[in-house]
């Protein structure tokens, strides 16, 4: 912003900065008076450049801003937790991660089940090490060591698998936080497949950008979604928490509005049902994103593009849908009784 004509830092600048904290501001001034500097600081200006405007002075200001950003911008963490077992959480998490990796982003998948998680099977990987090894060694997590604990999958993503045995010591929440911080620093995207019944895992998701509660359109999963989404919204900022509906059926008795009304969280996306594609992918250990071009992979690809912040046209994004169905009262009663 060039204020050389009037010499004043506009009052609106502070408001704009508060609304868009990621936007950097360089102020161009005639001279750096104490008054201008104080007002610039109060408005959240990042750099001031005074006359004479040389290439070095302007370039230096921009370089300093970029350097600051590089240290602040980390990767994004997307967490998936099922409203109930069998709703399709692992399938969705694995395929979303595959879609992100297909967009050439370094993507880490962490199967957060303390034991016997099945993401490795879905990814066709046979990892020698697991989450347990990572949590046992948080004091020496560097990229070389960590890479040794993971498996590179044919889906193009890096997998930290769940162990094939029961851990002998309880999970230490502090170590999960260290692991997630490490993931944020080293991978563009981290996708978590979370067990819904492990408090330590669900209590340590501060690093997550978004938490998706996966549900189906049946009463037991909607009840589960209420419980999980409610716990997550109390623990974290509610705008981080949304629902996704797997095996979506437009004609089903329980609709999107019913689910949103009961769960008090927005349905962010729906994914069609395709049992043949889902099961074949599972049996082959190859995410369907790698092989199939049908509606289900199409929806996952669109969702992943949305997560990656790319423009999406049309589609099944449902964050704007907020109508409450007539059956809501009955459903709410059923869900809480
Ligand atoms: N969109 C879908 N359409 C049809 N079947 C699905 C879909 N997503 C998952 N499935 C199937 O549902 C079953 C459970 O999936 P899984 O991802 O293991 O669920 P969860 O992790 O919630 O227990 C699997 O047989 C899987 O193939
Ligand atoms: Mg699962």
Helix content: 40-55%
Question: Number of DSSP helices?
Answer: 14
| Percent of residues in β-strands | 15-25%
Termini separation: 59 Å
- Main sheet attributes: strand count, strand direction, barrel closure: 8 strands, mixed
Total beta-strand segments: 10
| Order of adjacent strands in the largest pleated sheet | 5-6-4-7-3-8-9-10
Any idea what the radius of gyration is?
Answer: 24 Å
Q: Uncertain runs with pLDDT below 50, 5 residues or more?
A: 311-337
Shape: globular
Report the structural category. Answer: alpha/beta
Order of helices and strands: HEHEHEHEHHHEEHEHEHEHEHHH
The average pLDDT is 88
- What small molecules does the structure contain? adenosine-5'-diphosphate, magnesium ion
Report on the architecture of this protein.
The structure is a single chain. The chain is an alpha/beta fold. 42% of the residues lie in helices and 15% in strands. It has 14 helices and 10 strands. The protein has helices spanning 12-19, 34-43, 55-72, 89-102, 119-122, 131-136, 143-149, 173-186, 199-202, 219-235, 256-263, 275-284, 295-307, 328-336, and strands at 26-29, 47-50, 76-82, 107-111, 151-152, 158-160, 189-194, 210-215, 241-248, 267-272. The strands form 2 sheets. Strands 5-6-4-7-3-8-9-10 form an 8-stranded mixed beta sheet, with helices on both faces. It has a two-stranded parallel sheet with strand order 1-2. The longest helix has 18 residues, at 55-72. It starts with 11 loop residues before the first helix and ends with a helix. The structure holds adenosine-5'-diphosphate and magnesium ion.
């Amino acid at each position: 912003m060039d204020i050389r004509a009037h010499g004043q830092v506009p009052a609106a600048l502070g408001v704009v900065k508060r609304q868009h904290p990621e936007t950097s501001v360089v102020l161009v001034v005639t001279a750096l008076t104490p008054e201008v500097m104080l007002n610039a600081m109060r408005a959240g200006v990042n750099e001031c450049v005074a006359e004479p405007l040389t290439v070095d002075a302007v370039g230096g200001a921009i370089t300093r801003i970029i350097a600051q950003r590089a240290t602040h911008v980390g990767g994004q963490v997307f967490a998936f937790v099922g409203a109930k077992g069998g709703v399709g959480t692992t399938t969705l998490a694995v395929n979303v991660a595959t879609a992100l990796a297909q967009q050439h982003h370094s993507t880490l998948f962490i199967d957060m089940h303390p034991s016997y998680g099945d993401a490795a099977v879905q990814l066709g990987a046979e990892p020698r090490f697991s989450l347990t090894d990572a949590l046992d060694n948080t004091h020496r997590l560097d990229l070389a060591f960590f890479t040794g604990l993971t498996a590179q999958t044919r889906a193009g993503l890096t997998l930290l698998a769940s162990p094939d045995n029961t851990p002998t010591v309880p999970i230490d929440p502090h170590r999960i936080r260290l692991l997630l911080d490490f993931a944020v620093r080293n991978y563009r995207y981290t996708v978590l497949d979370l067990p819904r019944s492990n408090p330590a895992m669900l209590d340590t998701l501060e690093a997550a950008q978004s938490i998706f509660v996966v549900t189906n359109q049946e009463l037991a999963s909607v009840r589960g979604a209420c419980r999980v989404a409610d716990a997550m919204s109390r623990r974290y900022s509610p705008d981080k928490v949304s629902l996704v509906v797997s095996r979506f059926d437009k004609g089903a008795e329980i609709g999107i509005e019913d689910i949103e009304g009961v769960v008090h969280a927005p349905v962010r996306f729906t994914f069609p049902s395709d049992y043949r594609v889902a099961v074949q992918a599972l049996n082959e250990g190859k995410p369907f994103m790698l092989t199939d071009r049908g509606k289900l992979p199409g929806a996952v690809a669109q969702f992943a593009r949305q997560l990656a912040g790319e423009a999406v046209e049309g589609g099944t994004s449902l964050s704007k849908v907020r109508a409450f169905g007539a059956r809501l009262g009955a459903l709410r009663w059923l869900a809480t009784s």
